[in-house]
Write a structure and sequence with these properties.
Radius of gyration: 44 Å
Distance between the termini: 21 Å
Number of helices: 14
Helix content: 25-40%
Largest sheet: 10 strands, antiparallel
Structural class: alpha+beta
Length: 567
């Protein structure tokens, strides 16, 4: 028998290229670079998707579609991901034979390194190969890598802000601010002398509409927007304006039943109702309400005290209300389809004694809010630029209207004990009686009426021209368009696959430390074949026969002085 000598290095040293290749193979340079490239491509995909998420589809002006660009990046990432997976599974087949294992496992590892079909076979082989099975699972899941990333790109209809329209007088968004209410009155008989002035007819119309707004819930009429928003979809950060606020309280507990005289009274004899025939008794004046009942009332327009009931058989409800001047700050205002769909309202007023008003006062009313915003909704330090002014004549005009027995909240409604009908002093008394007849909570209903009056008066003041100071607030214009919609959930599995492949590479490098890095090469099988005692006498040629023999052979990779062999 021919004697065999151990392998020794040739006298000709390997070239630089061979040494460099051996170094890169030993230290897994190819696999690490492939993993890094896959990770970089995935990061690029995330960057592209994040950049175009919720952006207008029409803004993509390149010859390639967005999905094509992402598909290219996904293909590179998936292809480079396969490199470390194949190398790891191939290397694990050599470490698997540190102990005696079936010879057929060698074939299963080899097939698994080539694709998903072989990975399925390795996954279900026994005994279970933990690291190898982990690599097989990752190889199988890579089938969905490209599809999932492509499926993350979708579209939806949505709003898009158009920066180019900001401040444009035609296409831009603007909302009028009311800073003064100084010339809005009718002179009547006393002319410029304080006396019988009344509000302008447009304000009368808005007050009346506010009174009866609750009567039109089943109607199609709604408050028209006064904003300039050509496309009907706009937003404003802050809109600050002079406004009218209201406050109401239930004071039924303060009603005194004077059975001896057959009357109900409120605040002494200020408001009196007949017990047998009274339905509504209301008094509007310009005296400040009790601060313990209605706290925080600012410069007063009108104070309304009312007793009302649905019929003469029930006890009346007492309500105290006040209308007063305030500064309204609407923030985060959103208009959708020409309707104010969302806004946060904050009201401020000066309730100090120095700000209290009296009927017929000669001086104008001024309110300076603690925070002032310019037309771009930016706060400014000089709050006097936001001072709101109400002239004495405009003030007395409103007070005359609200306290009048024909136009305001002063009057009565009584039942006709003979006919069973009722006697109504004015349309406003009819309104209060109608509300009392149909409401389970009259105090709340009266509060709604007063609030609606304040809203419509504020809307009217916004439209009063000219205005001093900042006459309008500028906002952002939004339009309906088709937007890219990134479904980030589809990116979870591709991300996990890349991360898991890095972990598999680290685990494989650690496990194969000290072993030869043969990986997927077939040369080791040629140079380090089966030991003679393992080989059958005559090796079969058919694949089925080879598998049958290998299934009954358990081998391990043993390194001896003549090289490594499966023994």
């Amino acid at each position: 028998m021919e004697s065999k000598e151990p392998y020794t290095a040739t006298t000709v040293p390997p070239g630089l290229a061979s040494r460099l290749q051996d170094l890169m193979n030993t230290f897994w340079v190819y696999e690490i670079l492939a993993n890094l490239l896959s990770l970089v491509m995935l990061a690029a995909i995330f960057g592209v998707l994040h950049h175009y998420d919720s952006s207008d589809v029409d803004l993509w002006s390149h010859s390639w579609a967005l999905s094509s660009l992402v598909g290219l990046l996904a293909t590179i990432s998936q292809t480079t991901l396969a490199v470390p997976l194949a190398s790891c599974i191939s290397q694990l087949k050599w470490t698997w034979y540190e102990e005696s294992q079936k010879l057929t496992d060698l074939d299963k590892f080899e097939q698994s390194s080539r694709g998903p079909f072989g990975s399925v076979k390795l996954l279900f082989s026994r005994p279970f190969k933990f690291l190898g099975a982990f690599g097989a699972i990752l190889t199988i899941l890579t089938l969905a890598f490209h599809t999932l990333i492509q499926n993350a790109i979708s579209t939806r209809s949505g709003m898009l802000e158009i920066d180019g329209f900001y401040g444009d007088p035609i296409y831009g968004a603007s909302y009028p601010q009311g800073n003064n209410y100084t010339t809005m009155y009718n002179k009547y008989s006393t002319s410029e002398t304080l006396g019988d002035q009344g509000p302008t007819l447009d304000m009368v119309a808005d007050i009346t509409y506010g009174m009866y707004y609750t009567m039109m819930y089943n109607d199609t009429q709604t408050q028209l927007s006064i904003a300039n928003c050509l496309y009907g979809n706009c937003t404003w950060s802050h809109i600050q304006t002079l406004g009218v606020c209201s406050n109401c309280a239930d004071i039924t507990s303060k009603i005194y039943s004077d059975d001896y005289n057959g009357i109900y009274t409120l605040y002494g004899n200020t408001v009196v109702m007949d017990q047998k025939a009274g339905l509504v008794t209301s008094l509007a004046d310009t005296f400040y309400p009790d601060s313990s009942v209605l706290p925080g009332v600012g410069p007063l327009i009108a104070h309304v005290t009312t007793m009302a009931r649905a019929d003469t058989s029930v006890y009346p409800t007492g309500i105290d209300c006040a209308l007063y001047w305030c500064v309204v700050d609407a923030s985060n205002v959103t208009m959708t389809n020409w309707d104010i769909a969302d806004a946060v309202y904050t009201n401020w007023t000066d309730s100090s004694n120095s700000a209290h008003t009296t009927y017929g006062q000669e001086t104008d009313i001024q309110l300076t809010p603690p925070t002032c915003y310019d037309k771009d909704a930016q706060p400014i330090s000089d709050t006097t630029e936001c001072t709101k002014t109400i002239s004495s004549r405009s003030q007395i005009a409103l007070q005359n209207f609200f306290t009048g027995d024909k136009t305001g909240f002063t009057g009565t409604a009584t039942q006709n004990l003979t006919t069973g009908g009722w006697n109504i002093g004015s349309e406003v008394m009819q309104l209060i009686y109608t509300i009392a007849s149909g409401s389970d909570d009259l105090a709340t209903s009266m509060g709604i009426i007063m609030n609606n009056i304040g809203l419509l008066m504020t809307s009217n003041i916004r439209q009063t021209q000219p205005q001093d100071g900042f006459s309008k607030s500028l906002g952002e214009v939004r339009i309906w368009t088709t937007l890219y919609h990134i479904r980030w959930g589809y990116m979870v599995l591709p991300t996990l696959l890349v991360v898991a492949s890095i972990l598999l590479l680290i685990a494989t490098i650690t496990k194969s430390w000290g072993h030869e890095k043969w990986k997927s090469s077939v040369l080791p099988l040629l140079f380090h074949p089966l030991a003679d005692e393992v080989r059958p006498g005559v090796a079969p040629h058919k694949m089925s026969e080879l598998k049958a023999v290998a299934e009954n052979r358990k081998v391990r990779l043993h390194r001896g002085h003549l090289g490594s062999q499966f023994v």
